[in-house]
Amino acid sequence: MTTVLAVTTDAGLADLGKAIAFGVGVGLGAVGAGIGIGNIFGSMIQAVARQPELRGELTGIQWLGFALTEAVVFYALLGGLLAYVLV
User: Fold this and answer.
1) Any alpha helices (H) in the chain, and if so which ranges?
2) Could you tell me if 67 and 20 are in contact, meaning their C-beta atoms sit under 8 angstroms apart?
């Protein structure tokens, strides 16, 4: 039976930690954006069901909220990449 020992260096371990932190950070940013987008569209459906005549006014606000919430994912991605490269 052969035993294989993995040799890790401090640099390799640091890169592994940074990669894990990057994945967790971007993943949490994506989960948060998904929850926010679900809330936006759910609220839009409820608002139109209550007052259908306001659909035109609410649609613009809905898409603005969607775009701003989706930007959170890009901020998380950019922050994670910067942290991975600079730290």
Assistant:
1) 10-50, 55-86
2) no
Which class for 77: exposed (0-12), middle (13-18), buried (19 or more C-beta within 10 A)?
middle
Evaluate whether residue 36 is within a structural domain: yes
Look at 1 and 53; give whichever has higher pLDDT: 53
pLDDT band of residue 4 (cuts 50, 70, 90) is low
Residue 33, judged by CB atoms within 10 A of its CB (0-12, 13-18, 19+), counts as buried
In a 13 Å sphere around the CA of 54, the CA atoms on its Cβ side amount to 11
CATH of the domain at 78: 1.20.20.10
Residue 25, judged by CB atoms within 10 A of its CB (0-12, 13-18, 19+), counts as middle
